Amino acid sequence: MTLKIVIDPGAATAPYEQLRAQIADRARSGKLPVGFKLPTVRGLAEDLGLAANTVAKAYRALEADGVIETRGRNGTFVAAAGDASERLAAAAAATYAGEARRLGLGREAARAAVEEALRAAYGK
Question: Is 64 exposed, middle or buried (0-12, 13-18, 19+ CB in 10 A)?
Protein backbone atom coordinates (compact mmCIF):
# COMPACT_ATOMS: atom_id res chain seq x y z
CA MET A 1 0.00 0.00 0.00
CA THR A 2 1.27 3.46 -0.85
CA LEU A 3 0.33 6.85 0.52
CA LYS A 4 -1.06 8.95 -2.31
CA ILE A 5 -1.31 12.58 -1.26
CA VAL A 6 -2.10 15.45 -3.61
CA ILE A 7 -1.21 18.99 -2.58
CA ASP A 8 -2.83 21.82 -4.52
CA PRO A 9 -0.43 24.79 -4.37
CA GLY A 10 -3.18 27.12 -5.62
CA ALA A 11 -5.67 26.15 -2.91
CA ALA A 12 -6.68 28.58 -0.20
CA THR A 13 -5.88 25.87 2.37
CA ALA A 14 -2.27 25.74 3.55
CA PRO A 15 -0.25 22.74 2.32
CA TYR A 16 0.31 21.38 5.85
CA GLU A 17 -3.47 21.45 6.44
CA GLN A 18 -4.14 19.70 3.12
CA LEU A 19 -1.66 16.99 4.13
CA ARG A 20 -3.05 16.72 7.67
CA ALA A 21 -6.64 16.47 6.43
CA GLN A 22 -5.90 13.84 3.79
CA ILE A 23 -4.02 11.58 6.18
CA ALA A 24 -6.64 12.05 8.93
CA ASP A 25 -9.53 11.32 6.56
CA ARG A 26 -7.88 8.19 5.21
CA ALA A 27 -6.92 6.93 8.67
CA ARG A 28 -10.43 7.48 10.05
CA SER A 29 -12.09 5.86 7.04
CA GLY A 30 -9.81 2.82 7.24
CA LYS A 31 -8.16 3.46 3.87
CA LEU A 32 -4.95 3.75 5.90
CA PRO A 33 -5.15 0.84 8.32
CA VAL A 34 -4.03 0.98 11.94
CA GLY A 35 -0.33 0.23 12.02
CA PHE A 36 0.37 1.55 8.51
CA LYS A 37 3.89 3.00 8.49
CA LEU A 38 4.00 6.55 7.15
CA PRO A 39 6.96 7.87 5.17
CA THR A 40 9.64 9.81 7.00
CA VAL A 41 9.18 13.56 7.21
CA ARG A 42 12.04 14.16 4.81
CA GLY A 43 10.94 11.43 2.42
CA LEU A 44 7.37 12.67 2.20
CA ALA A 45 8.51 16.28 1.90
CA GLU A 46 10.70 15.32 -1.02
CA ASP A 47 7.93 13.30 -2.69
CA LEU A 48 5.45 16.16 -2.38
CA GLY A 49 7.84 19.02 -3.10
CA LEU A 50 7.25 20.54 0.32
CA ALA A 51 9.58 21.81 3.01
CA ALA A 52 10.36 19.24 5.72
CA ASN A 53 8.99 21.67 8.32
CA THR A 54 5.62 21.65 6.53
CA VAL A 55 5.35 17.87 6.75
CA ALA A 56 6.63 17.90 10.34
CA LYS A 57 3.93 20.43 11.28
CA ALA A 58 1.23 18.18 9.79
CA TYR A 59 2.64 15.12 11.57
CA ARG A 60 2.71 17.01 14.90
CA ALA A 61 -0.94 18.03 14.46
CA LEU A 62 -1.93 14.46 13.55
CA GLU A 63 -0.09 13.11 16.57
CA ALA A 64 -1.76 15.66 18.86
CA ASP A 65 -5.13 14.50 17.48
CA GLY A 66 -4.26 10.85 18.13
CA VAL A 67 -4.36 9.93 14.44
CA ILE A 68 -0.71 8.88 14.23
CA GLU A 69 1.94 7.85 16.70
CA THR A 70 5.70 8.13 16.53
CA ARG A 71 7.68 5.16 17.79
CA GLY A 72 11.12 6.71 17.98
CA ARG A 73 13.54 5.34 15.42
CA ASN A 74 10.99 2.75 14.31
CA GLY A 75 8.96 5.42 12.50
CA THR A 76 5.52 6.97 12.42
CA PHE A 77 2.40 4.83 12.23
CA VAL A 78 -1.36 5.22 11.91
CA ALA A 79 -2.80 4.89 15.42
CA ALA A 80 -6.13 3.48 16.52
CA ALA A 81 -7.54 7.00 16.23
CA GLY A 82 -11.27 6.46 16.27
CA ASP A 83 -11.55 6.19 20.02
CA ALA A 84 -9.26 9.17 20.69
CA SER A 85 -11.09 11.35 18.16
CA GLU A 86 -14.47 10.42 19.55
CA ARG A 87 -13.33 11.13 23.12
CA LEU A 88 -11.98 14.54 22.11
CA ALA A 89 -15.19 15.38 20.24
CA ALA A 90 -17.32 14.28 23.21
CA ALA A 91 -15.24 16.43 25.56
CA ALA A 92 -15.61 19.44 23.23
CA ALA A 93 -19.37 18.86 23.02
CA ALA A 94 -19.66 18.67 26.81
CA THR A 95 -17.69 21.89 27.17
CA TYR A 96 -19.93 23.59 24.60
CA ALA A 97 -23.11 22.37 26.28
CA GLY A 98 -21.95 23.66 29.64
CA GLU A 99 -20.98 27.03 28.18
CA ALA A 100 -24.27 27.36 26.27
CA ARG A 101 -26.23 26.63 29.44
CA ARG A 102 -24.11 29.10 31.42
CA LEU A 103 -24.92 31.75 28.80
CA GLY A 104 -28.63 31.07 29.27
CA LEU A 105 -29.29 29.48 25.88
CA GLY A 106 -32.12 27.00 25.66
CA ARG A 107 -31.66 23.59 24.00
CA GLU A 108 -33.02 24.75 20.65
CA ALA A 109 -30.80 27.84 20.51
CA ALA A 110 -27.76 25.78 21.51
CA ARG A 111 -28.63 23.12 18.94
CA ALA A 112 -29.11 25.78 16.22
CA ALA A 113 -25.67 27.22 16.99
CA VAL A 114 -24.14 23.75 16.64
CA GLU A 115 -25.96 23.13 13.34
CA GLU A 116 -24.70 26.44 11.97
CA ALA A 117 -21.15 25.65 13.04
CA LEU A 118 -21.37 22.21 11.41
CA ARG A 119 -22.67 23.75 8.16
CA ALA A 120 -19.76 26.20 8.20
CA ALA A 121 -17.22 23.41 8.84
CA TYR A 122 -18.62 20.71 6.54
CA GLY A 123 -20.69 22.61 4.02
CA LYS A 124 -24.35 21.75 3.45
Answer: exposed
* Residue (of 8, 79, 2, 13) closest to 44 by Cα position: 2
Give the least confident one: 8-17, 30-39, 81-90: 81-90
Beta-bridge mates of residue 69 = 77
Gyration radius (Cα) of the chain, Å: 17
What is the percent of the chain with per-residue pLDDT over 70, rounded to a whole number? 94
For residues 106 and 100, give the distance between their C-alpha atoms in angstroms, rounded to a whole number.
8
Whether 53 shows a pLDDT value over 90: the answer reads: yes
H or E stretch at 19: helix 15-29
pTM given for the model: 0.68
Contact (CB, 8 A) for 6 and 45: no
Domains and CATH numbers, the chain: 15-79 (1.10.10.10), 82-122 (no CATH)
DSSP-derived 3-state class of residue 69: strand
